[in-house]
């Protein structure tokens, strides 16, 4: 039995036959593969796990396994797996990019495999292409606005009214560096940019804060002690860890003292010798896609790192975005090349003061 097909029908059939394999196999290289990614904790980590990764797994027919942590624990994980790399991509703060690069834990971001890097604001590309920001928080203090503690300066934390009423974040986290810089700025009268190089002048004042510290915390949910009235003020903390509670109706909000506003910059990095590097690069590229950046920003109330987005008004009021707003807020990022070699000594000093 023969079937006759006219020229037009044959052309359509041939075109479809040629096109279909291209569609079906464009990501066939990823089928059945898996990668391990180090992500953050708290609301941001939850959003990445529940909203970003499932769609990525579907699109690439792959698996993405995650480990939650913060910058120092992420770097520790890379050190521990240096001889047998386990991770393909790692989230870490901008402070970590400089440190991990110097230790040989990272490879440069493969620009040819991450086309969305072209969208990233130049100020958020770090260490000569070893890191790219994907979310920016503002760093300041947090309060219960119903109690209105009237805080205008970091110096207010030392007042007698706050005796055993202040929450301070663990020295293990990046935010503790901001507290030292802010304290030094207050003591010396220098702006944050200059104070970061004068921190020896801040330690005595840091020690004087000890009677006012209720607890030093690691778990992000501890911030709710302020909302519940068990403490009056806490910090320095990132807005991404506070504003989601605010939006949910909790009596908690940020204040940015006159000494300045710190920039908490969450970055993407490409692990040296990463298994499945193609898939790791694809995941980093997905994190920088406009739809993903917008969804993440609106869910976590952080600023995107790429240009051209229009955030919903309810999210825009919390985010330092667009770039002109960042400039207006005077966001300050530390000189990590200077800070990192000194951080171990600073951590030890913190432990001496607050561990005794």
Would you kindly provide a written description of the structure presented here, covering whatever features stand out?
- With 356 residues, this protein is an alpha/beta fold.
- 39% of the residues lie in helices and 19% in strands.
- The protein has 15 helices and twelve strands.
- It has helices spanning 7-25, 42-60, 71-80, 94-102, 175-188, 192-195, 203-208, 224-227, 243-247, 277-287, 290-300, 313-316, 323-329, 336-339, 343-354, and strands spanning 34-40, 63-69, 89-93, 106-107, 125-126, 131-143, 166-169, 213-217, 233-238, 253-255, 261-271, 331-332.
- Strands 1, 2, 3, 4, 5, 6, 7, 8, 9, 10, 11 and 12 form a twelve-stranded mixed sheet that branches.
- Strand 1, helix 2 and strand 2 form a beta-alpha-beta unit.
Tally of contiguous helical segments: 15
Structural class: alpha/beta
Helix content: 25-40%
What is the N-to-C order of secondary-structure elements (H for helix, E for strand)?
HEHEHEHEEEEHHHEHEHEEHHHHEHH
Give a nutshell description of this structure.
The chain is of the alpha/beta class and about 350 residues long. It has helices at about 5-25, 40-60, 70-80, 95-100, 175-190, 190-195, 205-210, 225, 245, 275-285, 290-300, 315, 325-330, 335-340, 345-355, and strands at about 35-40, 65-70, 90-95, 105, 125, 130-145, 165-170, 215, 235-240, 255, 260-270, 330.
């Amino acid at each position: 039995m023969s079937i006759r097909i006219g020229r037009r029908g044959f052309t359509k059939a041939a075109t479809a036959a040629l096109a279909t394999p291209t569609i079906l196999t464009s990501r066939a290289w990823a089928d059945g593969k898996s990668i391990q990614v180090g992500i953050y904790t708290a609301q941001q980590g939850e959003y990445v796990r529940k909203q970003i990764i499932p769609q990525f797994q579907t699109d690439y027919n792959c698996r993405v396994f995650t480990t939650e942590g913060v910058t120092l624990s992420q770097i520790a994980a890379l050190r521990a797996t240096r001889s047998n790399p386990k991770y393909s991509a790692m989230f870490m703060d901008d402070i970590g990019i400089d440190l991990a690069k110097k230790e040989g834990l990272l490879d440069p971001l493969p620009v040819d495999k991450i086309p969305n890097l072209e969208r990233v604001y130049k100020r958020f590309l770090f260490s000569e292409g070893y890191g790219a920001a994907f979310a920016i928080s503002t760093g300041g203090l947090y309060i219960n606005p119903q109690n209105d503690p009237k805080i205008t300066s970091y110096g207010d934390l030392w007042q007698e009214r706050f005796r055993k009423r202040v929450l301070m974040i663990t020295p293990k986290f990046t935010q503790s560096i901001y507290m030292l810089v802010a304290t030094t700025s207050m003591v010396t009268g220098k702006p944050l940019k200059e104070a970061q190089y004068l921190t020896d002048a801040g330690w005595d004042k840091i020690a004087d804060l000890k009677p006012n510290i209720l607890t030093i915390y690691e778990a992000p949910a501890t911030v709710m002690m302020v909302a519940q009235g068990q403490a009056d003020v806490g910090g320095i903390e990132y807005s991404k860890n506070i504003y989601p509670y605010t939006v949910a109706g909790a009596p908690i909000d940020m204040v940015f003292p006159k000494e300045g506003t710190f920039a908490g910059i969450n970055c993407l990095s490409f692990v040296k010798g990463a298994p499945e590097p193609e898939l790791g690069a694809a995941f980093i590229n997905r994190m920088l896609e406009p739809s993903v950046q917008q969804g993440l920003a609106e869910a976590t109330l952080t600023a995107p790192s790429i240009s051209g987005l229009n955030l919903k008004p309810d999210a825009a009021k919390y985010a330092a975005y667009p770039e002109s707003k960042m400039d207006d807020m005077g966001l300050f990022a530390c000189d990590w090349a200077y800070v990192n070699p000194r951080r171990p000594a600073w951590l030890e000093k913190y432990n001496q003061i607050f561990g005794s």
